[in-house]
Design brief:
Largest sheet: none
Distance between the termini: 40 Å
Helix content: over 70%
Order of helices and strands: HHHHH
CATH class: Mainly Alpha
Shape: globular
CATH architecture: Alpha Horseshoe
Number of domains: 1
Radius of gyration: 15 Å
Number of strands: 0
CATH superfamily: Tetratricopeptide repeat domain
Number of helices: 5
CATH topology: Serine Threonine Protein Phosphatase 5, Tetratricopeptide repeat
Length: about 110
């Protein structure tokens, strides 16, 4: 259901569902269990999507905050030796630098 909500741009509702799922998984599994890791990645994905929506509305600071939340999650859950981690973190940090420039130029 949460995946459908993401596709329908209902990120706040999807985020709530992913967070609830994470709570349930944490009651039964360790932090490195695949279900916990996947839930965390889904939450980070929602934060990135919410940041994109903020950019479309020129809400640079809000977008930056969502990116920061996503970055923290990705840093915590993606395997340190994966190329996926390197790619995602590089892309996200680039986005954050661009947002910082936009914030500076609009203040």
């Amino acid at each position: 259901i949460a995946n459908i909500l993401v596709e329908a741009d209902q990120f706040d509702v999807a985020l709530g569902l992913y967070m609830r799922a994470l709570e349930i998984y944490r009651e039964h599994f360790t932090e490195r269990h695949p279900e916990v890791l996947t839930s965390n990645q889904n939450i980070a994905h929602c934060f990135r999507a919410m940041a994109t929506k903020c950019v479309e509305k020129q809400l640079w600071q809000d977008a930056l905050e969502f990116c920061q939340q996503a970055l923290k999650i990705y840093e915590d859950v993606l395997p340190s030796d994966s190329t996926e981690r390197e790619s995602i973190l590089k892309s996200l940090k680039n986005d954050m630098n661009q947002l910082l420039e936009l914030i500076k130029s609009n203040t």
